[in-house]
Amino acid sequence: MSQREIIATVKRDYIVDLAEEGKRVDARDMDQYRDINIETNWAGNAEGSALVDLGKTKVLAGVKIERGTPYPDKPEEGVLITNAELAPMAHESFEAGPPGEEATELARVVDRGIRESEMIELDKLCIEPEEEVWMIHVDLHILDHDGNLIDASSLASVAALLSTEPPEDEEDWELSEFPVKEKPITTTFARIKDTIMADPCLVEENAMDARFSIATLENGNICAMQKGGSGTLSKEDLLNAHELAKVKSKEIREKLD
């Protein structure tokens, strides 16, 4: 076993022992999120943007609007495309090159929360049925990684979309504003042994058995879910996570307002 592996094992055992005592490495309560800061209109060359700090995790989301071809099965709807870039400067585990499995999963989870909540009224973004629609690109740039990229990226995306302005100098844009109607919030929980904790930091993610992310609407209804990790979750775990998600998403949504 290498020195790096030995250190990782010692850290994991320490986090597990703390969890069994009802404690966390940064002294937070089990249902407590790290400090959240949201700064919109951060990138001047985008139609919408937001920089989110979740503890030491930092994510920049940018929104670009362009013309494109609709999907064949939805010829009268605009198109949402979400991409994530895990820059090597954000963490030593990230490598340069095409998006890997982690980046692909992150983009899909964020995309699903936005899409299934129907946050964007895509039916209003048609220019010519079957021919041309508006395409919404949400690009995620991970600047610093200290855990829970899903929540930070989802929040940055929602904040960026809420700040999005119609494209300038586009004659075919007929709407007075960018069509959004929902504010989905994703909250993530980790299970370590028999303990469920909100907003896991990186060392907690490295020690967790399973991860569960829930995207909820303002009325508390679930619009998307994602399970990660090799461990299992019981029905009770899921029900408890949903109740926590309703409380935590309300707190986070207030920061958007």
Kindly provide the name of the CATH class. Answer: Alpha Beta
- Count of individual domains: 1
The CATH topology comes to Ribosomal Protein S5, domain 2
Q: What integer is the average pLDDT?
A: 93
What's the N-to-C terminus distance? Answer: 50 Å
- In total, how many beta strands? 10
What does the radius of gyration come to?
Answer: 19 Å
Encode the helix/strand succession as letters: HEEEEHEEHEEHEEH
Q: How much helicity do the residues have? A: 25-40%
Strand content: 25-35%
Description:
- Component of the archaeal exosome complex. Forms a hexameric ring-like arrangement composed of 3 Rrp41-Rrp42 heterodimers. The hexameric ring associates with a trimer of Rrp4 and/or Csl4 subunits.
- With 257 residues, the protein is of the alpha+beta class.
- The chain is 30% helix and 29% strand.
- It contains five helices and ten strands, in the order αββββαββαββαββα.
- Helix 2 packs across helix 3.
- The longest helix is centred in the last third of the chain and has 22 residues.
- It is elongated, with a radius of gyration of 19 Å.
- The termini are far apart.
Top keywords for this entry?
single chain; 257 residues; alpha+beta; Ribosomal Protein S5, domain 2; 6-stranded mixed beta sheet; 4-stranded antiparallel beta sheet; 10 strands; Exosome complex component Rrp42; cytoplasm; exosome; Ribosomal_Su5_D2-typ_SF; mRNA 3'-UTR AU-rich region binding
